[in-house]
Amino acid sequence: MLAKRIIPCLDVKDGRVVKGTNFVELRDAGDPVELAAEYDRSGADEVVFLDISASREGRSTLLEMVRRTAEKVFIPFTVGGGIGSVEDIRAIVKAGADKISVNTAAVKRPQLVSEGAERFGSQCIVVAIDARRVQGENRWLVYTHGGSQATELDAVQWAKQVETLGAGEILLTSMDGDGTKDGYDNALNSAVAEAVNIPVIASGGAGKLEHFRDAFLDGQADAALAASLFHFKELTVKQVKDYLLAEGIAIRPAEQGGRI
Amino acid sequence: MIAIVDYGMGNLRSVEKACERAGMDVFLTDDCAMVEQADAVILPGVGAFKRAMENLRVRGLIPSLEKVVQDGRPFLGICLGLQLLFDGSEESFGQGLVPGLGLIPGRVRRFPPGLKVPQMGWNQIDAVRRDPLMMGVPDHSYMYFVHSYFADPSDDSCILTTTDYGISFTSSAAVGNLYGIQYHPEKSSRMGMTILRNFGAIVDDYISSH
């Protein structure tokens, strides 16, 4: 049976790992390649790099980081942040990434998703959706530019649209939950998971073991992503996986990672 | 030396780096002579079956691959590289079978409707018979898969492992020194690396006995 996946996320700026709370404050914390290799050894199923460099220098540093990652990390990895064209996708895939994720650029120009899927295959194209709940209602709007700009797009409708365009996976971040450690927004997760037939990665809000179980059981997510929780070792990948296995969820045991 | 066949079907950098980490002496090539001179061959690949066969054909690689297999030299097909070993694929809808290399009897089929396609993620390999390729890989280990089609051998004796994805399909196959695996060992962390090291040992054994 296909396992549910546990995915640590690394926020990267100018080739260094940073971690923000609610997308604003940043705190430097190390070499992304070494950290990703450590996550591989600790039993993570994939790693996501989110690049928040704005400068051109930062972008070329990113490609070098992707190349080094491909040499040292033997689980799939996704690179997102600032990808605006098929040429950007090509450069990152050529450097060795398994998947790329697009967010703002896909909202601006949805054909980027279909062009990317046609050229590199759907399995390569992850669409990241940052969603915020409309207060008091059970619907969510899509935000762009790192969560700073609201759009009129309904998150569930947008998810269905990108699936039609050829997205292989949806990385669904709850802007309300991000950084709070109050748990994933499983109403959002299940609304999207029920609307599409591609995997949904729950993101934003993980703070304790039960949150991962709830994302899979209540949120119907295929994978759960966390950044600061793993980064600051509040929980280890092994603790999360041991807990989920004990809860009877299909999980690749952390021991199948390990020193290579 | 082990030739990794680079025929325009995906980025082979991860495969190359993982083989190097597994201690194998590998090089990337699309040259027939280099393939024919190699001690062993790895045929990776992702993408469309028909285009892959066409890319092999225009490079003149098909007779070279057949020769390596006929000599009994170790050969490892990965993902699409496994599927190409079979007689043909049902990939092109309504246009009959797209011919493959025909080195293992059987055909490549699409997952039935109702399953999420591609299968993408970690799934278990369940042992059917023992083989040096699987040494040190515990039964039911998880491997990383990305595929929409699967190989369906006509003779079950080639099956090393099966995997359950709504249906049970062949995830590892072997006929003598000819191996094919549907999952990506280069993306399967320590367990995938064990399989690559085992293939390296099979190649070493072959070299020392020839």
Walk me through the structure:
The complex is a heterodimer of chains A (260) and B (210). With 260 residues, chain A is an alpha/beta fold. Chain A is 37% helix and 23% strand. In chain A, strands 1-3-4-5-6-9-10-11 form an eight-stranded parallel beta barrel, surrounded by eight helices. Chain A is globular, with a radius of gyration of 17 Å. Mean pLDDT of chain A is 92; it is low at 21-27. Chain B is an alpha/beta fold and 210 residues long. In chain B, 28% of the residues lie in helices and 33% in strands. In chain B, the strands form two sheets. Chain B has a nine-stranded mixed β-sheet, sandwiched between helices. The chains are: A alpha/beta (260), B alpha/beta (210).
Q: What is the 3D shape of chain A? A: globular
Helical proportion of chain B?
Answer: 25-40%
Radius of gyration of chain A: 17 Å
- From the N-terminal CA to the C-terminal CA of chain A, the straight-line distance is 25 Å
Unreliable sequence segments of chain B: none
Main sheet strand line-up of chain B = 2-1-3-4-13-12-11-8-9
Describe the largest sheet of chain A.
8 strands, parallel, barrel
**What is the typical, i.e. mean, pLDDT of chain A?**
92
Q: Structural class of the helices, strands and pairings of chain A?
A: alpha/beta
Main sheet summary of chain B: 9 strands, mixed
Helical region count of chain A? Answer: 10
Structural class of chain B: alpha/beta
* Percent of residues in helices of chain A: 25-40%
Counting DSSP E segments of at least 2 residues, the number of strands of chain A comes to 11
What is the number of helical segments of chain B per DSSP (H or I, 4+ residues)?
Answer: 6
- Beta-strand segment tally of chain B: 13
Strand content of chain B: 25-35%
Average pLDDT for all residues of chain B = 95
Quaternary structure classification: heterodimer
Give the overall form of chain B.
Answer: globular
